[in-house]
Amino acid sequence: MKTPTISRIENAFQPAKEIDTPKRFAGRQQAVLDCFYALVTEGANISIVGNRGIGKTSLARQLIHMGTGDNSLLEKVGHETSERYDFVTMYFACGDAVKNCNDLLERLLTSTDCLRDWIYDIPKARKEIEAYNPKFNVGFAALGAEKKIEQESVSIIHNHSIDVVFTNVVREVVAQNLAQHGILIVVDEFDRIKDPTGFASFLKSLATNVPTVKFCIVGVAQDIQQLMKEHESSDRLFAGSIVKLPPMSEEELTEIVRVAERSIDNFIEFDTDATRRITSLAHGHPYMVHLIGKYALRDAFQQKKYLITSESIDETLKNIAESGADPVLEARYKKAVASSPQREIVLKSLAAKVSDDGEVWTTDAYKVALDQGVDNSSQYVGQLVTEDYGSEIVKVRDRYYRFKDSLFTAYVKARPWQFNEEAEQSH
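^ that's the sequence the OP posted. Answer follows.
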């Protein structure tokens, strides 16, 4: 069997980026179908919500494929359709600079991967945005060797707000009949927008004025109200098209491992126990499978091993922690634990007793901590809710707490002990 390249080994698992191709996409059959039905429903905007590391961006990327006529994922999940949809698709990920609805619309208009290139080629659209803010003129002119001479005169109202300008621009883009079904705009990491007030009203207006423009907003949230922070309008705008991603099943997580094995022609494989160990540690988060799988595969390749065992996974977990393979999660863990072995015991005891609804009853967690020698757990819980230790848990009500991030919970469970080697052996 031919030895795969280092590049193929390193990219068999992809914790650092979303899964872009349908061939590499695993599981999520119902979510894929829900996205497709929302895509083809006239007037429906789409929302993909869920916890961190759960696969939201990967699903959004698949939606873009479906929106450009690629039905291979639909066929993969057993849904046959002769219809192929034709949207102009755009993808934008929000950053810290996008603070409100106006910031978002401006960036959609001026980003190269979104509307900017289209605006340059459509004189009416370009005049609209240049009238809103002349500083954009330079950016658009730079897209071609020289600025085109416009043959028609269009009166402009110079004091249009950005939402009106956006609406007018996309109306002009749609009028060019560039795609049969309109425009699909995916806005990722929507939860990073500090003040999304007004976006629901904007979408409602846009649906009336330019009904062939469809938004898909993606973000960390339990529901659309939490994501958009606007309750009544949100319900109506996304009725029937909210895709909430639950934790992946063990079968779906296993499929991720098998897809990775096939990508290197099964040159290295995970045995049954190793696969089960990874999927158990992931607690429904595909990101954790990719993170652990990537480093286990790298270690096996370097050591010229062709079968990865459960013992290999344990060694990989130590290497991930020691090397800071995920610097964000590792930094959060170290901030929560700091220099206290007792606080680490309490943190892991809380993580061990998270119920299906995400809550922790402290009575159960304190018993686990007491078995490991900590008899004042409430003191450390009081510290873990504070910013000094990362505020990783929040109080729900008397004696009940919740981790604010389920991905961090999975990391706490999977990470080897920093101080307590005896506790690690007992676990």
